[in-house]
Amino acid sequence: MTLENDQEPAKYCKFCFGTEEDSTLSFVHPCRCRGSIHWVHNQCLSMWFAKANAVQQVMCIQCQTRYQKQLTLKSWRSWAIPRFGIDMFGLLEISVDLWITWRTVSGFVGMMNGTKGIFREIILCTMWKCFVASGRRFCYYGNLGLQLASSIFRVSIDDYDERREIKVRLPTDMDWEQISQSSVLN
């Protein structure tokens, strides 16, 4: 299929395969993916996030782009208690993570006070880093926090192309992270 220079290709949702003609749902381009997986309906993306694992809720599994999420406060009447969907094994994992973290922090304080040995604390810190402070666990806890936040905030995903256009228009000596942080502070 050839396209004229002034025509854009039809938008297809990469989850439901719906087109612009099929429905009135809005599209977003949340990552760097191109081609047939370029577009997705906002509603389909929200349903995907509800079912996806922790890592897939943070970044696109194809292009590894981190999603930029925005939180907008909901009306207090639409606040709800979130459904975490944590089973007994998940509760056990969280309990062990909290226990190891508490032991590591209290042991470090004890080591600084001279009541605990350094060798024991090195072992605890190593265990904490390997089992609790891994990237997957941070994604897991970040998503639990996002689920909790979504009970009072509306979560929306920024369009990747719009972010890229803003970044291109920035002066070359400005850092995107500085701009993001300064907009949060204002």
TrEMBL record:
InterPro entries reported for this sequence: Znf_RING-CH (IPR011016), Znf_RING/FYVE/PHD (IPR013083)
GO molecular function, one term: zinc ion binding
Gene3D superfamilies: Zinc/RING finger domain, C3HC4 (zinc finger)
PANTHER family tied to this protein: E3 UBIQUITIN-PROTEIN LIGASE MARCH5
Full protein name: E3 ubiquitin-protein ligase MARCHF5
Taxonomic source organism: Caenorhabditis remanei (Caenorhabditis vulgaris)
Gene Ontology terms: cellular component: membrane
Top-level division of the source organism's lineage: Eukaryota
Cited Pfam families: RINGv
Keywords carried by this UniProt record: Membrane, Metal-binding, Transmembrane, Transmembrane helix, Zinc, Zinc-finger
UniProt-annotated location(s): Membrane
Xref: SMART domains: RINGv
Major location (coarse): membrane
Membrane topology: Multi-pass membrane protein
PROSITE patterns associated with the record: ZF_RING_CH
